[in-house]
Design brief:
Keywords: 4Fe-4S, Iron, Iron-sulfur, Lyase, Magnesium, Metal-binding, Queuosine biosynthesis, S-adenosyl-L-methionine. The protein contains 6 helices and 9 strands; from the N terminus they run E-E-E-H-E-H-E-H-E-E-H-E-H-E-H. With 220 residues, it is of the alpha/beta class.
Length: 220
């Protein structure tokens, strides 16, 4: 089995519960959504150049780099054919696996894996244009190592995020992260909103890598 990898690199994780820790990133080609803010739209089309890499080849690369954390991202990594087998192979080799997923893919078939990964699952807010694709049945499967992330463009997105958290009791399952669409909303507005609504369960997160490197830079 091989997988369509558009880039792989070692960096600090700029997002999620392991932000600031070293991680290896494997970005898979292709996505079923088209969020209007997507910072990896170049990776989302099926004609994007990629390398077809095997489980063995990727594990050799990870081992050479002495990584512990592995983040599978994309595109939408959970749409990659055979990704469940790859997740099991990474888990049984001792890697700590995190999946960045867009909230549209049903997690039930991944939830029961022997080496269940940590999911950082977006709920696509109204301003993304993709909210209609959300699979809200996923919320009941989430564990404390998972995260629900709302990438917000506006106060209206924050209002929707808060309503979704209340409706699905997300804080009873896992942490809630709020992240600004880069350059589209001042993070101060998010903090002010959190203060105004006493939103103690939510956590603001800025994409750290976009402050360390030029925001458009790939491979970091
Ligand atoms: C590029 S996506 C790939 C994984 C998956 N397709 C998803 O949407 O979660 C990784 C993360 O980057 C976030 N993201 C993409 N573009 C962004 C932007 N312009 N500003 C902030 N976050 C962004 C997404 O919302 C998602 O949480
Ligand atoms: N440094 C760094 N951290 C990240 N965390 C999630 C990323 C992603 O694109 O999914 C990402 C990324 O692209 N770079
Ligand atoms: S789901 Fe993820 S990769 Fe796909 S368009 Fe949205 S942000 Fe980009
Ligand atoms: Mg990114």
């Amino acid at each position: 089995m091989t997988y369509p990898v558009v880039e792989k690199f070692i960096s600090i994780n700029g997002e999620g519960q392991k932000a600031g820790e070293l991680a290896a990133f494997i970005r898979m080609r292709g996505c079923n959504l088209s969020c209007n803010y997507c910072d990896t739209s170049w990776a989302n089309t099926m004609d994007c150049p990629c390398e077809f890499l095997s489980t063995e080849g990727l594990i050799t690369w990870l081992t050479e780099h002495k990584t512990k954390n592995v983040t599978l991202t994309g595109g939408e990594p959970l749409l990659t054919k055979g990704i469940d087998t790859f997740i099991e192979a990474l888990g049984s080799s001792g890697f700590s696996v995190e999946i960045e997923t867009n909230g549209s893919v049903a997690l039930d078939c991944f939830h029961n894996l022997l080496h269940r990964p940590a999911f950082t699952m977006d709920y696509k807010c109204p301003d993304s244009g993709m909210e209609q694709a959300m699979c809200t049945d996923n919320f009941s499967l989430l564990l404390s190592k998972d995260t629900v992330k709302f990438v917000v463009s506006s106060i209206a997105d924050l209002e929707k995020a808060r309503a979704v958290c209340t409706q699905y009791k997300i804080a009873d399952h896992c942490p809630i992260f709020l992240s600004p669409v880069f350059g589209r909303i001042d993070p101060k507005e998010i903090v002010e909103y959190m203060i105004e609504h006493h939103w103690n369960e939510a956590r603001l997160q800025l994409q750290m890598h976009k402050f360390i490197w030029p925001p458009e830079q790939r491979g970091v």
